[in-house]
Amino acid sequence: MKKRPSSIVVILAIINLSIPWISFSQSESLGIFESQDDIGKVNKPGSATHDAKKQEYTIKGSGANMWFDHDEFHFVWKRMRGDFILTTRAQFVGEGVEQHRKIGWMVRSSLDSDSAHVNAAVHGDGLTSLQFRRSKSGITEEVKSSLKGADVIQLERNGDTYTMSVARFGDAFVKQQVSDLTLGDEVYAGLYVCSHSKDVIEKAVFSDVQITVPARKDFVPYEDYIGSNLEILDIESGNREIIYHSPESIQAPNWTPDGKALIYNSRGRLYRFDLAKKMPVVIDTGFATSNNNDHVLSFGGKMIGISNHSKEDQNKSIIYTLPVRGGTPKRVTSKGPSYLHGWSPDGKFLIYTGERNGEFDLYKISAEGGEEIRLTTAKGLDDGPEYSPDGKYIYFNSARGGTMQIWRMKPDGSDQQQMTSDEYNNWFPHISPNGRWIVFLSFSKEVSPSDHPFYKQVYLRLMSIEADRPRVIAYVYGGQGTINVPSWSPDSRKVAFVSNTDNR
Q1: CATH architecture assignment, domain 7-19+215-501
Q2: E-assigned strands of 288-419?
Q3: What is the four-CA torsion angle of 159, 40, 56, 121, rounded to 10 degrees?
Q4: Does an H or E element contain 7, and which?
Q5: pLDDT tens by residue, 103-136
Q6: 67-107: pLDDT as tens digits
Q7: Is the pLDDT of residue 330 over 80?
Q8: Could you tell me which of 94, 119, 99 has the C-alpha nearest to residue 191?
Q9: Residue among 344, 390, 341 at smallest CA distance from 362
Q10: 3-state secondary structure of 131
Q11: What is the reported pLDDT for 347?
Q12: Residues 6 or more apart whose Cβ sits within 8 Å of residue 103
């Protein structure tokens, strides 16, 4: 299914919104967490610090063990209700003393040492397991993972079901689950370190720490929306930085060629987000106030193409162009729906997805308008076309083989070649400005190949232009609007994207 008008599209005229920074911090020194405590009778007190610039936590903890009917460890926590997803990258500092030292996520009914709880644990020897105590003073149980040495740790609560998802950074998640674990509505959720030796302090660093509140179970797609994080990802290190949070739905950031700003859409309007000032300003798009998340900058950065819905076209998406700083849009496509995805490096052509007679195919048109040229004819959804920086290929995604995979073709539509073939549904290939890398969005096989919905657990994956094995560079709660448009920094070192969390 091709994207429908976003929430934003429904509002045809709004005032200029200056969306404020929403701080996650309850305590300036502990970032997103409320407090920290030593749980149980530890011999050596633990501690935690938060580096706001790096957005990482360093935690020190002792404690004899977390097992049997009681626990001893250091805990950095936040009280939470309802469902949530806890995600981090984590590693010990130093070789350590005890192979059973532990780090990970913990969810507890209370701060008592014998509290019912569940935790996703990575041990010093690499053992990774889901451990839990079903009742106060009960005996701890364990489900071991087949994966050892995980450094990405996720713990998800869905009612009374808890799912541990772990990975070595770059790989897909491996999952374990426990059901019917009643810890109460309000719980203590957070990060921990246990040295497994009462006279030893162990230290660990936790980066890319995310507490995500997913969409409510009664959420109605394309009618209900949750909050958004605007993030920047370093592709070499995998480190993520949240640079802005909005309680609104923001989608599809473009990175301007001068490196100074991101352009995204929200509530039908386009915004320019100044990376130095960390503030968005609305772009004047004239009558076009129902824009969806298909907007593309010209390679020179002076023009922007938009996909706008208007009453005159039965609310179908029509492509326009205008100066990047704002102005009166010039209509390019006569037919709709047409969803813009790419601009040729020489500035002469736009490429887009068009629905014609119930079939979604890829089309090319002069940037000045005129007759459209059909590039694909295969049955099944073709989408997300984008030129390589050298202009030699158009990359796109297609469900013609049963799953959504990445393809490429020459600019005239010839020589169509499949670039990925795996179990995921892969969308929106974006080529780095240096022509070396492709970043794209991957949904699980549980999602229909022809759909790219909001609010799913997805991967951002990276592969070389030679189409080697893709690797995960970000574990994201998002989907629609996360990375629909070209999002590379001019130096090809970073990408911008959107993740989501509810504002409860």
Answers
A1: 6 Propeller (2.120)
A2: 296-297, 303-309, 317-323, 330-331, 338-343, 349-356, 359-366, 373-374, 382-387, 394-398, 405-409, 417-418
A3: -60
A4: helix 7-10
A5: 999 999 999 999 999 999 999 999 999 999 999 9
A6: 999 999 999 999 999 999 999 999 999 999 999 999 999 99
A7: yes
A8: 119
A9: 341
A10: strand
A11: 97
A12: 59, 90, 92, 121, 122, 153, 191, 192, 193, 194, 204, 206
Q: What does each C-alpha distance from 210 to 19, 335, 379, 423, 454 come to in angstroms? A: 21, 42, 40, 26, 18
3-state secondary structure of 91: strand
CA distances from 369 to 304, 336, 373 (A): 15, 14, 11
φ, ψ for residue 29, nearest 5 deg: -80, -15
Domain spans, the chain:
7-19+215-501, 28-212
CA distances from 15 to 182, 226, 267, 282 (A): 46, 20, 10, 9
* pLDDT above 90 coverage of the chain, percent: 91
Three-state secondary structure call for residue 70:
strand
- pTM, two decimals, is 0.93
Length of the chain: 504
Sequence letter at residue 142: E
**Both structure tokens of 406:** 């990445």
8 A C-beta contact, residue 110 and residue 119: no
Residue in the block written with tokens 């780095």? 432
Question: Are the CB atoms for 353 and 342 separated by under 8 Å?
Answer: no
Residue 350 · residue 319 · CB < 8 Å? yes
Tell me which residue of 388, 399, 485, 478 sits closest to 431, measured CA to CA.
388
Calpha distance 338→321 (Å, rounded): 13
Q: Which residues pair with residue 319 across a beta bridge?
A: 307
pLDDT band at 18 (very low <50, low <70, confident <90, very high): very low
Provide the residue type at 226 as one letter.
Answer: I
Pick left, alpha or beta for residue 270 (phi over 0 → left; psi -120 to 50 → alpha; otherwise beta): beta
Name the token pair of 295.
Answer: 């907007």
28-212 to CATH, choices 2.60.120.560, 2.60.120.200, 3.10.180.10, 3.30.200.20 = 2.60.120.200
Q: Which pairs from 335-338 meet CB under 8 Å and 24+ separation?
A: 335/372, 337/2, 338/307, 338/363
Partners of 47 in beta bridges: 60
* CA–CA distance, 235 with 431 (Å, rounded to integer): 13
Q: Which residues contact 277 (CB under 8 A, 6 or more apart)?
A: none
Supply 179's token pair: 């059901």
Residue 203 burial class via C-beta count within 10 angstroms: exposed 0-12, middle 13-18, buried 19 and up: middle
DSSP track, 216-265: PTT--TTT---EEEEEEEETTT--EEEEEEESS--EEEEEPTTSSEEEEE
Phi, psi of 364, deg, nearest 5:
-125, 145
Distance between CA atoms of residues 333 and 335, nearest Å: 6
DSSP 377-414: --SS-EEEEEE-TTSS-EEEEE-TTSS-EEEEE-TTS-
The whole-angstrom separation of Cα 416 and Cα 378 is: 10
